[in-house]
């Protein structure tokens, strides 16, 4: 009974989000309260399933991004970018998406989105076009490469832990190009889909190519703030990059950076202003709510049941099994957080390999490919996408669920198809 209730509540919340008449935060809150009242979740469950790691990361990075924007660095980079790339919005959009992908190979997806968003906004505005595809494009690019390295996304770390993989195994595995190269090949092609899906946002008749590009140096006035921001940002990037090696919690680097920059600015700025201006509390709340709703599906066995069907219909055929794992993971990860999904699927994939004799690494790469890339279909499946939508809504206008899907699905399907072909060639076709 609890499983049915958790499914119905989840569907109702998703439906309300798609409907768009009430803010997604309140839709998620309604779902959490309903599960609590109906006895599906206890207060202890809510605390256990709520992903406060991501919440703290968003708060910390929001404060850092505020001071980065205030320092003028974002505007300086944007103007240098425009002067270098030219006034073609499509070319700029494509490069931004690819850059977001490259940075997120080392930095987590949410941080990449928060830090590149001000640059994307400045670039779009300098050309007189909508910021929607630029900010969303950065998030899509960031999510694409999060799984490429062991330090990129939690699912990658979970797979590495389960199979005792090293950092280099994600680059070259047993003499073959590994998941890093599979995903990196997909990056430029997937990013190219934005050139078609974003056309309605970047009508050249509405863009202003006659805008005078200002001198970027005028934005770099506060040299002290610039030095402080660069120092703090560098420290945060280093800590985030090595955190898996030294067991540093995800929340620690961004909160430490936010605390340091706040202390440095305490006599010069209103230290509460970043919490009001740059921290999107409703988006943070929505992301935490979705992890709780996903936790309910996990607790009641719904995710276990879905995973068992993959086992049932694979028929001990490595090609069928890999395809089912990839596309089922894409579909499921579009609507639920992929961390509990991976927590369920990793043991199942291991068991499937033991029973059938299918190669465990081939199956696990398939899981990582589908489960990590599927979140790009919607802004529900990936925290970075929800953050991007929140940033757009703060700076321009509301972004509907369907509107995001029109940008995200082509990007996702293209990346997954390329990844699946390479996965088949490298880990199934070749001995």
Automatic annotation (TrEMBL):
<feature type="transmembrane region" description="Helical">
    <location>
        <begin position="223"/>
        <end position="242"/>
    </location>
</feature>
<keyword id="KW-1003">Cell membrane</keyword>
<keyword id="KW-0812">Transmembrane</keyword>
<keyword id="KW-0813">Transport</keyword>
<feature type="transmembrane region" description="Helical">
    <location>
        <begin position="248"/>
        <end position="266"/>
    </location>
</feature>
<feature type="transmembrane region" description="Helical">
    <location>
        <begin position="278"/>
        <end position="298"/>
    </location>
</feature>
<feature type="transmembrane region" description="Helical">
    <location>
        <begin position="404"/>
        <end position="430"/>
    </location>
</feature>
<feature type="transmembrane region" description="Helical">
    <location>
        <begin position="129"/>
        <end position="151"/>
    </location>
</feature>
<feature type="domain" description="Citrate transporter-like">
    <location>
        <begin position="16"/>
        <end position="370"/>
    </location>
</feature>
<feature type="transmembrane region" description="Helical">
    <location>
        <begin position="179"/>
        <end position="202"/>
    </location>
</feature>
<dbReference type="InterPro" id="IPR051475">
    <property type="entry name" value="Diverse_Ion_Transporter"/>
</dbReference>
<protein>
    <submittedName>
        <fullName>Citrate transporter</fullName>
    </submittedName>
</protein>
<feature type="transmembrane region" description="Helical">
    <location>
        <begin position="93"/>
        <end position="117"/>
    </location>
</feature>
<keyword id="KW-1133">Transmembrane helix</keyword>
<comment type="similarity">
    <text>Belongs to the CitM (TC 2.A.11) transporter family.</text>
</comment>
<dbReference type="GO" id="GO:0005886">
    <property type="term" value="C:plasma membrane"/>
</dbReference>
<keyword id="KW-0472">Membrane</keyword>
<feature type="transmembrane region" description="Helical">
    <location>
        <begin position="25"/>
        <end position="42"/>
    </location>
</feature>
<feature type="transmembrane region" description="Helical">
    <location>
        <begin position="49"/>
        <end position="68"/>
    </location>
</feature>
<feature type="transmembrane region" description="Helical">
    <location>
        <begin position="318"/>
        <end position="336"/>
    </location>
</feature>
<dbReference type="Pfam" id="PF03600">
    <property type="entry name" value="CitMHS"/>
</dbReference>
<dbReference type="InterPro" id="IPR000802">
    <property type="entry name" value="Arsenical_pump_ArsB"/>
</dbReference>
<dbReference type="GO" id="GO:0015105">
    <property type="term" value="F:arsenite transmembrane transporter activity"/>
</dbReference>
<dbReference type="InterPro" id="IPR004680">
    <property type="entry name" value="Cit_transptr-like_dom"/>
</dbReference>
């Amino acid at each position: 009974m609890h499983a049915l209730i958790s499914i119905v509540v989840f569907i109702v919340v998703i439906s309300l989000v798609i409907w768009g008449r009430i803010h997604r935060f309140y839709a998620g809150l309604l779902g959490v309260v309903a599960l609590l009242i109906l006895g599906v979740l206890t207060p202890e469950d809510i605390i256990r399933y709520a992903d406060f790691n991501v919440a703290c990361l968003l708060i910390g990075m929001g404060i850092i991004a505020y001071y980065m924007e205030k320092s003028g660095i974002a505007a300086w980079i944007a103007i240098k970018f425009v002067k270098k790339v030219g006034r073609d919005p499509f070319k700029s959009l494509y490069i931004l998406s690819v850059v977001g992908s490259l940075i997120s190979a080392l930095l987590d997806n949410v941080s990449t989105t928060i830090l590149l968003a001000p640059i994307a906004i400045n670039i779009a505005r300098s050309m007189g076009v909508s910021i929607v595809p630029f900010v969303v494009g950065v998030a899509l690019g960031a999510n694409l490469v999060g799984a490429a390295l062991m330090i990129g996304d939690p699912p990658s770390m979970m797979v590495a832990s389960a199979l005792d993989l090293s950092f280099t195994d994600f680059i070259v595995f047993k003499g073959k190009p590994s998941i890093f190269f599979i995903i990196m090949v997909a990056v430029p092609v997937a990013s190219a889909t934005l050139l078609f899906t974003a056309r309605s946002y970047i009508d050249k008749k509405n863009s202003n190519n006659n805008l005078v590009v200002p001198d970027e140096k005028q934005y770099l006035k506060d040299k002290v703030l610039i030095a402080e921001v660069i120092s703090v940002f560098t420290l945060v990037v280093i800590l985030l990059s090595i955190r898996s090696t030294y067991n540093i919690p995800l929340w620690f680097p961004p909160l430490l950076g936010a605390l340091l920059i706040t202390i440095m600015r305490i006599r010069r700025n209103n230290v509460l202003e970043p919490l009001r201006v740059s921290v999107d509390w409703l988006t943070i709340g929505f992301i935490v709510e979705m992890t709780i709703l996903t936790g309910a599906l996990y607790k009641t066995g719904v995710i276990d049941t879905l995973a068992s069907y993959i086992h049932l219909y694979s028929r001990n055929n490595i090609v069928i099994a890999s395809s089912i794992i990839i596309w089922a993971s894409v579909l499921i990860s579009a609507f639920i957080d992929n961390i509990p999904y991976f927590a369920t699927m990793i043991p199942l994939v291991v068991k499937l390999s033991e029973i059938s004799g299918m190669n465990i690494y081939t199956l696990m790469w398939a899981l990582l490919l589908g489960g990590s890339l599927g979140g790009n279909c919607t802004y529900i499946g990936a925290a970075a996408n929800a953050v991007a939508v929140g940033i757009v809504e703060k700076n321009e206008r509301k972004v509907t669920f369907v509107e995001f899907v029109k940008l995200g699905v082509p990007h996702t399907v293209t990346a997954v198809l390329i990844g699946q072909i390479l996965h088949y060639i490298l880990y199934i076709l070749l001995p």
